[in-house]
């Protein structure tokens, strides 16, 4: 009997696709003849059932409905479904989760100290606890809102800004190439920004920002800021050579401390840098400027729009105006006829308000 099956397998292995189809067709006919010689009901042993399911589950329901004769097709499909349910579930791969008690201990150390993740891992090791991986500790800290790195020195830069925002000013130059009777020339404007309120003071434009000019602007700035009720305790600027020693000295004489940012670190002067970007993209880049007076007019128009008409998305401002004359009434909806559109600079700068306001 074994030799017969071996011969049959050799024949099937060497057959072509068409030959296999003819052989399968012959086997189906032969199976029908043999099935007709047997009684209508055939008892299947558990071992035979396992063998049938093993080979049948790879064929699919459509094929089984055409081939199955020893039992009803629905029966063998039911056996296959039952076999799949009995199979053990595969174990999930990956590292096991960090124990909850260990996670709480890591967060306790981060909350009560100014340690980074490496120091926390050392403390765990000191307690006899095998610490999780570096990335695991970092992810636990980040998920809870803690910085994974340590705090160094007197405090973070964010701490400094929060502590000094009420009296901290940042200043920076921006420039624009304009048309004059002498041709195209570059004009400079000095911007001072109050970090807490985001309010801005602009100098008049100049072609020559020399030391005498910038020292004069320092004095005018302090006078204007304090005239608006804004404290001037610290003035911060970058390493631009136009910020001379005379400029710093003029501020110190007016009881203002000068803080110079690190070389090539624009992010530390980010608030005034963002204003320079805004006035450029929203206004100056869209104009051809003719002379200093025109430049000054455009800058002052934008400044009024920036303070009184443009909502701001900065932290703590929450889409409010920097300077609001009166608070509008709160309504669920408003008709278009009650909305007034104001324009500046030929319609470039638009703002909307209620006519009843």
Automatic annotation (TrEMBL):
Stretch forming the signal peptide: none
Span of domain Integrase catalytic: 146-327
GO process terms (BP): DNA integration
One Pfam family in the UniProt entry: rve_3
Coiled coil (UniProt feature): none
GO molecular function, one term: nucleic acid binding
Stored InterPro entries: Homeodomain-like_sf, Integrase_cat-core, RNaseH-like_sf, RNaseH_sf
Domain of life the protein comes from: Bacteria
SUPFAM superfamilies: Homeodomain-like, Ribonuclease H-like
Protein name: Integrase core domain protein
